[in-house]
Amino acid sequence: MKREKPPTIVDVAAEAGVSIATVSNVINRRKVPMSPETIRRVEEAITRLGYRRNVMATNLSRRRSHELGLILPHFGGYYGRFAEKLEQKVHGYGYHLSVFSAAGMDPEIERRHLEHLLQRRVDGLVSHGLAMSIPSTMQLAGEGTPLVIFNGWNWPGDVVKWAVNLDFAGASREAAGYLLARGCRTVVYAGRRHGMGANEQRIAGFLAGVGEHGTEVAHALLDAGELGVAGVLEAALSVGGSASAGPVGIYTFNDALALELLAECHERGIRVPDEVQLIGMDNEPFAKAAFPSLTSFEMPVDLQTSLVAAFLIKQLGEALDEADEALLEQYLAQTVGHELLIPMTMVVRNSTQKGAFHSHP
Amino acid sequence: MKREKPPTIVDVAAEAGVSIATVSNVINRRKVPMSPETIRRVEEAITRLGYRRNVMATNLSRRRSHELGLILPHFGGYYGRFAEKLEQKVHGYGYHLSVFSAAGMDPEIERRHLEHLLQRRVDGLVSHGLAMSIPSTMQLAGEGTPLVIFNGWNWPGDVVKWAVNLDFAGASREAAGYLLARGCRTVVYAGRRHGMGANEQRIAGFLAGVGEHGTEVAHALLDAGELGVAGVLEAALSVGGSASAGPVGIYTFNDALALELLAECHERGIRVPDEVQLIGMDNEPFAKAAFPSLTSFEMPVDLQTSLVAAFLIKQLGEALDEADEALLEQYLAQTVGHELLIPMTMVVRNSTQKGAFHSHP
DNA sequence: CTGTTAGCGCATTCAA
DNA sequence: TTGAATGCGCTAACAG
């Protein structure tokens, strides 16, 4: 624990025999003209001393941190990829991204992270539709820091300028329609209550899809958190009365749940997709490798992060590059209000293809 | 973009009719005696103005950030959980944790994050065995910031005081032995070259396990990155000559790879575990839900993060609580050098239980 | 082209 | 019990 304190700009100036202002100039590659000789001497001094600029001092002085904060519900799957992509994106604009996880929607942890980011005076924030209550968030975020939400619905436009959402409703509508088209006699949605807005969107879309079907169809909304996986499966199987023909279609909150249901089907000798058809969401790597492979929805992470970054960078008064500017305009044109919807595409696999698998022939 | 600048301690002082020193005192020096009246006035002013302390200024003044940095190879699975746990742990000691992902072992990104963390003058660093070269890291980290490594091997003791590692070698040894004991005629290890140290540890342990077997046994080391999943399976099947009796045992770098191999087996009508037995690593949620479920190794995230936190906090000169102190001593006692090894436990499932599954009866 | 100087927001002696 | 003054490391006019 020796830790002699790191060299400062003053040490560098002394070492190079110039003033601190000059050092600052060469560090920040300012426009001001400087003799090559001076630059060389300063740079030498910097490497010789192992100088590293103190960003706290820099930010304090600049009254600008060039730092952005991202709050995620957790680091897994889609969200992790989201974070990495967004980091790359904003780095291209000279911003740094600090990522925090609410460790599974824990409002307390979330609040802590938010508070910390605010105290650090980040220039902007990106957050999922939070676990914290909206008023509580509003109070924290206040009018202050630019905030872009992703996958959050019904945020008042005065606190959130933009919400960049995946069209879970549309996807769910499609899923329901697809299952019905495949001849399912019954369709159910298996959700997770703590999915919050994302869950509600799926429900709304699912119901819409069911409603669009020509004839009346047996359906149900199930909660996996409440019923458990086995409970969901049982409930699903008994919805339409056990005698009717055709498989039961189950559309799940995400691939993880779909996979668990799949395992439960194996356990009970229920054939997929003959007796039960499954559609998940997220298109996780394991969805493809499952047996039978799971039909799911691809997450357009690239597009979503690009849009999020574009909105935030723009709010920060920065100029966007050609591609991002174009992207923004394209989506802005087809958007009403401040909620932007990104369409999703279904990836059809064997869990919805009749006859592709027989567990117990 | 109005953003009137946030209130400072000066504003609060004015509002409360006291000096800034007094404000500072009520905020963080409750030890010094102050009249309750003053405290009340200051606190009122704070809430009235919505004052929030600027940590950059605070840290600059204190010459201490109370912030720790964590660098991960990526956010997925085990690492994500690791981050969340560690965050909780260090929060208990009054530290904040900033997490960064190298986006899949990208040395460039990793360097960027490390540099940023150092510029931010974090009090300590935690990192996986990095993607960056060791010398490059040493130069960066230098003698300066306390650094604890996890799952990193062969780091010189003068730059890394502690390395807290999972015993991948021991687990791999056990895996090989287990497969052999289950009657496998052939055992192979399917790895990922970019797993680096973690991969090498597995290889060493695997070979040791094979070597401990009484008789000579056909085995091989395969690289999934090079051969592809199909290639690995083919190679594995042909290792011992196709005629010999007993299943082929495949021990994989992680569950993801095991699952892909499992899918490939289904594809080709190869029965698991009758013809092929699989053991993965990480005990991901999908390992349990796979069909057949995958034998794997549990990751002791809690224990590992506790130890990492304890080492780092201690290096920072902080006092540990009872439990952590005890934990530290316990492990210190059984450790030689600066590399600490955490034992892992196997979770046996159907992918190694004969007869549990017949894909094509 | 280079140096002087006044902040940035806060913590912390040292006096009062 | 409170306040004035100094410094943390750096940036950004403004002079020279």
UniProtKB/TrEMBL annotation, chains A, B:
Keywords: DNA-binding, Repressor, Transcription, Transcription regulation. GO terms for molecular function: DNA-binding transcription factor activity; transcription cis-regulatory region binding. It comes from the Bacteria. Residues 7-62 form the HTH lacI-type domain. Pfam families: LacI, Peripla_BP_3. PANTHER family: HTH-TYPE TRANSCRIPTIONAL REPRESSOR PURR-RELATED, LACI-RELATED TRANSCRIPTIONAL REPRESSOR. This is LacI family transcriptional regulator. It comes from Paenibacillus whitsoniae.
